[in-house]
Amino acid sequence: MPEPIEVRKLPIKHVSDASGLAELINAGTIEADRVTAIIGKTEGNGGVNDYTRIIADRAFREVLVDKGTRTMDEAKQVPIVWSGGTDGVISPHATVFATVPADTAEKTDEPRLTVGIAMSEPLLPEEIGRRGMIEKVAAGVKAAMHQAGITDPADVHYVQTKTPLLTIQTIRDAHSRGKSVWTEHTHESMDLSNATTGLGVAVALGEIDMPADSAVMHNRDLYSSVASCSSGVELDRAQIVVVGNVRSIGGRFRIGHSVMTDALDSDGIWDAIRDAGLKLPDTPRWNDVDGRLVNVFLKCEVSPDGVVRGRRNAMLDDSDVHWHRQIKSCVGGVAAAVTGDPAVFVSVSATHQGPAGGGPVAAIVDHGPEPTGYRAPGR
């Protein structure tokens, strides 16, 4: 049986700030050696050369080492997934997952949060965008589910991954071995890596059958409703965090999910919050969550037809500001308006993650007697 989970969202005051994690550990809320995963937003450009992710990663791992007994090599095994880019009102933050001793957790037979982690086999540059990557990701997701104690894929509500993208160096490595790559455009490879990983998650959970290589980035009808995939230069394999619910584990947190059907679908966010067990009015407002919402995690993309609800937009034609940044800002504003909290996890590049033009939404709700979620100052 997996152990109960404590979840907290921490503000990041500057790009190398991990003081919130140190304070959480110093207060005895969690133990450094029990931190199992961290998922956060950094304030860089969100692109191939977004080194704010590396800076934040180092800062948080140094706290784990300083406050616990792990060596740096051991701390590097903790999945820390950073999504770069806090466009618009999105606020830099981190969500920390840590186990707690079973005898200290609230007892309940209701579904409660569980987390499983895994690392895939190394991903070769020539596998990105192809079946080899899909198979390795799917195997990793199944391993993470097993660690989380989840036997029914329906109990998986959120799969956060970090995978490698293509760089000039890795492209040259593939060529030196006589291999081809799906694309030689490094920025495009970010979308490609995310998309292929999304298909791997969908295969693992039985949402789709194994697709042909020709479907990658092309058949938008194939997708996972729970995958949230990011990519970067930080690693050479898939780092996988599976979050779901199991009964009899105890604890105070529960996760749910839904999908946004387009960039303005606020109902999709509310549906995820309801799916996490929070009772809401028929027409909810942001203050109805009343400190119960820990965080929401969203993926988004520009609709490939350049239209939202019958209205044309120019995001895909804009040569000044890449559509990644525009759609992230848009959906971040929608999510912040729904939740009343600008510290929302919104990540771009959602091909094969939710329906075309939309994306998956996961929500974590605190069901304890004294909720630990965010309440806006003066509200």
Characterization of the model:
The protein has 379 residues and is of the alpha+beta class. It is built from eight helices and 14 strands. It has helices at 19-26, 52-67, 72-75, 131-148, 168-176, 186-204, 266-275, 323-339; strands at 5-11, 35-42, 80-84, 93-99, 112-122, 156-164, 227-232, 237-246, 253-260, 293-300, 307-308, 311-312, 345-348, 359-366. The strands form four sheets. It has a four-stranded mixed β-sheet with strand order 1-4-2-3, with helices on one face. It has a four-stranded mixed β-sheet with strand order 5-8-6-7, covered by helices on one side. It has a four-stranded mixed β-sheet with strand order 9-14-10-13, with helices on one face. α1 (19-26) runs parallel beside α2 and α4 (131-148) packs across α6. The longest helix has 19 residues, at 186-204.
Indicate the percent of residues in helices.
25-40%
The pLDDT mean sits at 96
Largest sheet, order of strands side by side?
A: 1-4-2-3
Instruction: Count the DSSP helices.
Output: 8
Keywords:
alpha+beta; 27% helix
Give the topology, please.
Layout: E1 5-11, H1 19-26, E2 35-42, H2 52-67, H3 72-75, E3 80-84, E4 93-99, E5 112-122, H4 131-148, E6 156-164, H5 168-176, H6 186-204, E7 227-232, E8 237-246, E9 253-260, H7 266-275, E10 293-300, E11 307-308, E12 311-312, H8 323-339, E13 345-348, E14 359-366
Parallel strand pairs: 2-3, 6-7, 10-13
Antiparallel strand pairs: 1-4, 2-4, 5-8, 6-8, 9-14, 10-14, 11-12
Helix pairs in contact: 1-2, 4-6
